[in-house]
Amino acid sequence: MKITKHIFLLVAILLFASFKKQEEGIQLQNLRCEMLVNPEGIDVVKPRLSWEIISPQRNVQQIAYQILVASSPEKLANNEADLWNSGKVNSDESIHVKYAGTTLKSKKRVFWKVKIWTNKGESTWSENAFWSIGLLNYVDWKGRWIGLDRSFEWDNETQFSRLSARYFRKEFQAKKTIKQATVYIVGLGMYELYLNGQKVGDQVLAPVPTDYTKGVKYNTFDVTKLLQTGNNAIGTVLGNGRFYTMRQDYKPYKIKTFGYPKMLLNLDVEYTDGTKETISTDESWKVTADGPIRTNNEYDGEEYDATKEMPNWNKVGFSDSNWLKAQLVQEAGGMFEAQMTENMKVMENIKPVSIKNLKANTYILDMGQNMAGWLRLKVKGKKGDKITLRFSETLQSNGELFVRNLRDAKVTDVYTLKGEGQEIWEPSFVYHGFRYVEITGFPIVPTIDDFDGRVVYDDMATIGEFETSDKTINQIYQNAYWGIRSNYKGMPVDCPQRNERQPWLGDRTTGAYGESFIFDNVRLYSKWLNDIEQAQKPDGSIPDVAPAFWRYYGDNVTWPGTYITIADMLYHQFGDKETIKKHYPSMKKWIDYMQEKYLVDGLITKDKYGDWCVPPESLELIHAKDPALQTDGILLASATYVRLLDVMQQFARLLNKPADVKAYSRVAEEIKKAFNQKFLNPQKGQYSNGTVTANLLPLVYEMIPANEKTKVWNNIVNKILVDNKGHISTGVIGTQWLMRGLSQNGRADIAYKISSNRDYPSWGYMAENGATTIWELWNGDKANPEMNSGNHVMLLGDLIIWYYENIAGIKSAKDDVAFKKIIMKPEMIDGLNAGKASYHSMYGTIKSDWKKDGNKFQWNISIPANTKSLVYLPANSLEKVTEGGKKIVGIEGIKFVKTEGKQLILEVNSGNYSFSVN
Ligand code: BGC
């Protein structure tokens, strides 16, 4: 009795102890390879591995790691690292650790795990993670490109071309038991893939678009579970995408087209006995263009006739005797590239907020939100009933759709019913930018329950959240969130609704940096840098649109310069040095090209767009005509070029190229000199005509002679507060630095005023006037519809950066990038009483949540393991500060650094902290 009692007690103690150990244990999470979770088919043979360290304890720093990489999960479970055992490496690196094991060949499947040692003990092994290598060499691809190089009588090959989708099928026999099956597909412009009737993957509008003459992306899927021994069927559907492009024979000198849709597919099957076989595209495949998707075109919409459905076409046993033989066609041209960024997906489903009967048989559906994607419908009716959907961002005063700002995009989807009970339909190969949908031909009175708004963009996580005590700022943030996600389409596009949707470089120069606080956009943007590099001409010229679906080689500085600023963003926010290394030669080539061609007497003499879209003098205008509102193009080009030289110097230092550092700095000095000679008016204390942009750029780029700085600064303040009564007057270029420029120089209050205005011109004015996204123009409610999208992100400038870095106060240190060292420094602004954000960095989640009330300040923060922070508190002495209710002496993880004016600076290591200032 006594003994059992003791045993019981012992077991209880042991259980408790082990529970406790686990609770305090260090865990490794979110293992990533090339910043992707368990990627299939990558084409990097020495990929970079990253992990996150989770610990409830404070002050956890990694001191060593060990990585095991094996060729099977079984081997990995036995710690048999037949591909790579890094050994115990003394290092605090936990992101971008390069694989250094056996050289990996095409199709290799690889399993890995990691363990770390910290100042607080060691972790157990992580869960297993995975990656596989794609088809690295041209010769790894078997089979032929297939397609149909023709149109059909129901197609329309005019400027508004709309082809029907092409359906392909092939049956094959798997003779033995399948161990592993992997499919590699290049389906252009867009594909859907089915095996034995089941859709492969949850991607839509795949693959991501590229300039198909330069590079084509293939997608890889593990399809072992979808195949069976015996007969199997493969089915694919090809849509136009950007391949058979949106406007045929329309300005062919400017707009690229690539040909009819086509595909190449390899299905690799490995049997349990070790034998292998590849099923690939060839003449034995069958094809029809006479299926239910009658037309599809990104701008104009999709028409689906359910009476033309071919039940079970993608399953074994379907009779395809009246289908055509697939045609062997010319290959697409570009090199095969593994797609290293996620495809698009339906990322959210939203319900409409209202439906109104406009006139007989015509309804207007309101999604309550401007969005990009499409509408899914649910309907019952007769065979042949035809429902037409048209989309728009706004309504006219009579309640009808306002479509003039869509230019000639027809944005019309048509669904023809088959009349067999409930039918659910959504398109496959289009997306629309819309809030309102006009519905005609619905067989019964529709209700909002019959529809879903399908929000479509690249499958990337939302990694940031942000909120303040100011309602206007919160709403602008929501509008920005919707605007940004609307405009990710396998590349960042300018707008999702009109006949444009182009990846304009200038729209993202600084925006991409702000966006990176909200979305895990690292892979999208590194893909985009490849697009830009591919678009570069042999002489060095970079276009304004890349991929260059529209041919715009205008040789200005402000748009192409985005190539460099985004590489900088990827490094600063995500620690991606590899991208800088890869692109450095091309960036340098462009820098040199611009210099050789346009540097005349110390100034860069070429600009194209000016400070694009400043608030104009009268509300119907798109661009200001008044010279007083415009900023000199040479000033913009030269100042921007100086800034880019500065970034290039940082890159050159990072890559250890001292000669380049010297050369860039010499040219920068030469330009600064000429710039000040030409544009600085010391009497007036202003540059050129004294626009905010003209003065702001030299200020933030540190081009102003020391003794003139105050005057120029005062000029900016005066211009904003007096001339513009606290309003914005900058366009796409000036807005990139406005908020930070004001904050850095001690006037966060002005930045706050600008960002919380609700009258014209301001972001708040857009919200006040019904915007649920960000407009292309400050006067987007009144301006000429010719160039007036309701869903553009370029005017955000540096606003989102300012929200996170200055209001929430979460910023990565410049030298310890990717938030390895975090600067926690919220601005204290009169009238703004609370700020809150969380941001999921490569190291883990950072949080800042502050409130102030008179002289009282309360601040909860979280700092991820293996990072450090510098925390700036609004207090002038240590006496006034407590953490967790205790005085700041001898608290683990906190070290006093100094007081600086009204601020107290602490070094704070990882963990959760709760500071109060009284
Ligand atoms: C686009 C902009 C783009 C600009 C440059 C516009 O039509 O929508 O976002 O940057 O043209 O010319």
From TrEMBL:
One of its GO terms (molecular function) is hydrolase activity. Residues 809-885 form the Alpha-L-rhamnosidase C-terminal domain. Keywords: Hydrolase. InterPro entries: 6-hairpin_glycosidase_sf, 6hp_glycosidase-like_sf, Alpha_rhamnosid, Bac_rhamnosid6H, Bac_rhamnosid_C, Bac_rhamnosid_N, Ig-like_fold, Rhamnosid_concanavalin. Pfam families: Bac_rhamnosid (PF05592), Bac_rhamnosid6H (PF17389), Bac_rhamnosid_C (PF17390), Bac_rhamnosid_N (PF08531), Ig_Rha78A_N (PF25788). Residues 176-348 form the Bacterial alpha-L-rhamnosidase N-terminal domain. It is an enzyme of class 3 (hydrolase). It catalyses: Hydrolysis of terminal non-reducing alpha-L-rhamnose residues in alpha-L-rhamnosides. Residues 463-807 form the Alpha-L-rhamnosidase six-hairpin glycosidase domain. Residues 357-457 form the Alpha-L-rhamnosidase concanavalin-like domain. The keyword Hydrolase applies. Its EC number is 3.2.1.40. This is alpha-L-rhamnosidase. It comes from Arcicella gelida.
